[in-house]
């Protein structure tokens, strides 16, 4: 007997911590998706900045098929060729000397925060444990990372939260100066806040954090889980700003849709993670690393990275035209192909209504809070798909405009 799942089955069998849209996509090709009924959608969501090469990209499919016929899993009792190949590629393309692989952005940030505390402990003493983060930040859903994140709604009801964590105001260097002191082991920041509203850091802010970290013997951690791997038009966002962190975390687009995370750091910092200090059963498994290598090798090319700026300009042009017609946005912001369109006071918190209207019109969107539309499409989305998706978005905005008056 065959069984075709429906959206109602989610409510029956799955925990209620998600609330998916009414459709179930079953097939993707590039920047288009099709649901169970054969309806087509233009994908502006990209799996929340994950599908950086779209759906079923030939290089990723080939890497997965080839590796799947050779070796799936060893554990870290043994080294494997795909992990070493990906580590070498990332080290040679960035500031880093060493790489650690895991399964997600949350795990990458967990590793980074543990590394920073261990480094401070070994070099400066156990009293140096303070972590400075920023309000509206998002660093993952593990207990440590959700506490470091600057959104209390994600820790509410789960207390008590771990100690030694304080939060300043993003893009406010004076706020950070008030918090960073000799007991600070790490400053963690997103070069562009994603969940917090798609807000890029100012150059002065990141430069100031680097100086603060240096002055107080703290480590600077860049969380590039969402903004990394080509999304800004550079392989990593720190390259856009010219500010180099001590530790960088990466995930999402790193595997192009296959789960993988990475923490990158310098040799000096890495030395404190001696054998047994940290680990991951699945981290660095051959399947994920083979796909990750294919993704990074494809993305880190002039053709792809230079094309991000061109596509950003086209997205902005369409969004500005929609705003001119419907007077709906207070600000359009972002870098590369991580963009946010914040609704004005008239539209208010119309994000989820716009997502639902978008589904009806055949375009998949994201939000970053209730009042910000977020766009994180494939880095190689064809211009024709941008044009078509924006035409569908305009129809969705028109429907929402009728409801808000």
From TrEMBL:
Q: How is the cofactor bound?
A: Binds 1 pyridoxal phosphate per subunit.
Q: Which PROSITE patterns match?
A: AA_TRANSFER_CLASS_3 (PS00600)
Q: Does the keyword Translocase apply?
A: no
Residues noted as binding pyridoxal 5'-phosphate in the record, renumbered to the chain: 138, 223-226, 281
Q: What class of enzyme is it?
A: transferase
**Superkingdom of source:** Bacteria
> Which chemical reaction does it catalyze?
N(2)-acetyl-L-ornithine + 2-oxoglutarate = N-acetyl-L-glutamate 5-semialdehyde + L-glutamate
Key words, A-Z:
Amino-acid biosynthesis, Aminotransferase, Arginine biosynthesis, Cytoplasm, Pyridoxal phosphate, Transferase
Could you identify this protein by its name? Acetylornithine aminotransferase
Quote additional remarks.
May also have succinyldiaminopimelate aminotransferase activity, thus carrying out the corresponding step in lysine biosynthesis.
Where in the cell is the protein located? Answer: Cytoplasm
- Which species? Salinisphaera japonica YTM-1
Q: What Enzyme Commission number(s) appear in the record?
A: 2.6.1.11
Q: Any idea which residues bear N6-(pyridoxal phosphate)lysine here?
A: 252
